[in-house]
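Now for a chain:

_____
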Amino acid sequence: MTKDNSTQEDQSNAKARRARGEFVRGVSGFRHTIGDADFPPEPGRYHLSVALNCPWCHRVTLARNVLGLQDSITMDVAFPNRTTEDDPEGPNLWEFAPERIATLTGKPLPECTAETGTGNSLRLAKQIYRAEGSQEQSVPILYDKIAGRIVNNESAEIIRMLDGAAKALGSTIPEADRVRLYPDTLSERAEIDDLNDLIYTTINNGAYKAGFSSDQRIYAAAFDAYFETLAKLDDLLSDGRAFLTGAHFTEADLRLFPTLYRHDPVYFVRMKLNGARILDYPHVWRWLCRVYALPGITDAGSLVHCRQGYFGRSWNGVVPAGPFKPMAYPEAYERPNLA
């Protein structure tokens, strides 16, 4: 798999950059591919470990759904808040804990599961890595249940391999009806690659640069780039095209959606991206509603998990109750005419 600017962040001087207050996303360490000799594409062989509040996981759950792989790729869902300081394994770890109570709802979240992929009922994602001698602890994880090994933990690569191997993996959608996220035509791929690079740098990772960097200048640069890109995308969509590259939903749309799905109800406040709402970009808003209406999209994410995960781990753990104007989310995404 190519390691380009739309897949991972430049790691040069990462330690010094973090020390200056910049958020620098780490690099995923497992980069095998379904289709390698050790990992043949077979229905029922593979498993995903995800958290529904995580936008990188959201990419993967979207791909699983739109490609019709829900029945052939099993999935576990971690609780949106990670472990606390008093956990015996330490804080800030993804935990499979279907019994945990969400402060937002006052009860367990029905989507959360125990860990079933390894067959060992592990409590933490970190323990899946530890079995392979790794200190990583991130999600998503694509796991081979037969080999008992991690295949890949880089979301950009996972969605592309699921797309390329969808039929062999057991998609329930006929090939003629199934979306092709990364078409074979070189010109289409070039357009998607360019969009991916822009979207990853300024929107997907840019939201984290704004929200989690502690240097005002870095925040300001990320803030400006984020909204400049939203304006560019609004202009791109103003010609009446249904999706970013034209008439068809592709990987570029899939990678943009998780961030913008979170913007108005979460990132506007939590990531300090309060320059404007997606509602203020009418063409992007209608695109967002159009994607939300596609089969499989609504079941691939949860704003309850997003709100619980982002705000529930803030300094006081209180989750904001809104927004409710012009209407509550995600119901607003069913109303393209709100913009």
Q: What stands out?
A: The beta strands are 46-50, 74-77, 101-102, 107-108, 141-144, 149-152. The radius of gyration is 19 Å. The chain has ten helices and six strands. The chain has two domains: 14-169, 186-338.
